[in-house]
Specification:
The protein has a single domain, classed as 3-Layer(aba) Sandwich (Rossmann fold), CATH 3.40.50.300. Strands 2-3-1-4-5 form a five-stranded parallel sheet, with helices on both faces. It has 302 residues and is α/β, with parallel strands linked by helices.
């Protein structure tokens, strides 16, 4: 069976979907469907999360059986790079690393990281917009995080814990070697999308594709709803399996993203909440700065 050659391993809400969509436009790249089968993170524990919407989302799409996961890849192909985009791989690095070595010890791992307060707030807005996050206030949701983790709500609900990057990065570097783990930043993706995608492609050993179209629209953005009725419609379709399947079969991913994006307005975390939350990441970022090769944004090195 065909095995993956790379993984876009995280972090969540850091531009991984935009990165994957850019890679997907290369003629020699194959990305699984679903984009996030979560195999390496969850193969040993399964997907039985108990948060709002978890049954209809991650529990439904996760592929935790070895043969079923490899069955997502084509038997006969001429692709040079094949992989998935599960952000859970970084967060559950302790579970993922041994299985990565077993499936393909030569795997290349792509990480894209984001300033952790912004990442946490983006995750909150995303779940809020989808109708899953019950707390109207970000602070209240943060206060609920320990209880939610105890009750087995899945990783997107772990707003602060998912912003601790260094341990997972070290585990993955140990698993495949530091030269096989590439780190990019959300900032780079926002500043120069095409250059970032091409840099990742070089890391994966891909030749230039002269026909590649990197005019990829912004995808999987977060924000606050502009129109309540549109947001309720999107939320209802997410919960209804028949409607969700029908919409997916009749529309493209980019069309659905354009509709979803049009219903959201940008939102930033308040200065007060940032000041309260930022200290919880200081020690981790100090350790991260020690192991990052090459230039990094100010939020890493400050």
């Amino acid at each position: 069976m065909t095995v993956p050659t790379f993984l876009v391993a995280g972090a969540a809400r850091s531009g991984t979907t935009g990165l994957v969509e850019g890679l997907r436009t290369h003629s020699r790249v194959f990305i699984t469907s679903p984009k996030e089968p979560h195999y390496f993170a969850l193969h040993s524990i399964g997907a039985d999360f108990r948060g709002p919407g978890d049954a209809a989302t991650i529990n439904r799409v996760a592929v935790t059986d070895h043969d079923a996961y490899l069955g997502l890849y084509p038997d006969q192909h001429d692709y040079l790079a094949l992989g998935d985009g599960s952000v859970s791989t970084l967060y559950y690095a302790d579970q993922a690393a041994p299985e990565i070595r077993r499936v393909n010890p030569d795997m290349r791992l792509v990480l894209i990281l984001r300033e952790p307060v912004d990442r946490a707030y983006s995750s909150y807005l995303y779940l809020r917009a989808r109708g899953f996050e019950p707390c109207e206030d970000f602070r209240a949701a943060l206060a609920q995080e320990p209880h939610r983790r105890q009750q087995n709500w899945h990783h997107l609900w772990h707003y602060t814990a998912m912003g601790q990057y260094t341990h997972g990065l070290n585990v993955l570097r140990e698993a495949v070697g530091p030269d096989r783990v590439g780190v990019w930043f959300y900032d780079d993706l926002q500043t120069d999308y095409q250059a970032t995608i091409r840099s990742v492609q070089q890391f994966l050993g891909l030749p230039e594709d002269i026909d590649q179209n990197l005019d990829v629209p912004r995808v999987n953005v977060s924000g606050t709803p502009r129109l309540a009725v549109l947001q309720r419609t999107i939320q209802a379709s997410t919960r209804n399996e028949f409607v969700r399947s029908s919409v997916k079969s009749l529309t493209t991913f980019r069309f659905r993203e354009r509709i979803r994006r049009s219903g959201l307005r940008p939102s930033e975390v308040s200065d007060q909440v940032r000041a309260e939350l930022a200290p919880s990441f200081v020690d981790d970022l100090a350790e991260l700065a020690k192991i990052i090769d090459g230039p990094a944004p100010d939020w890493v090195t400050a």
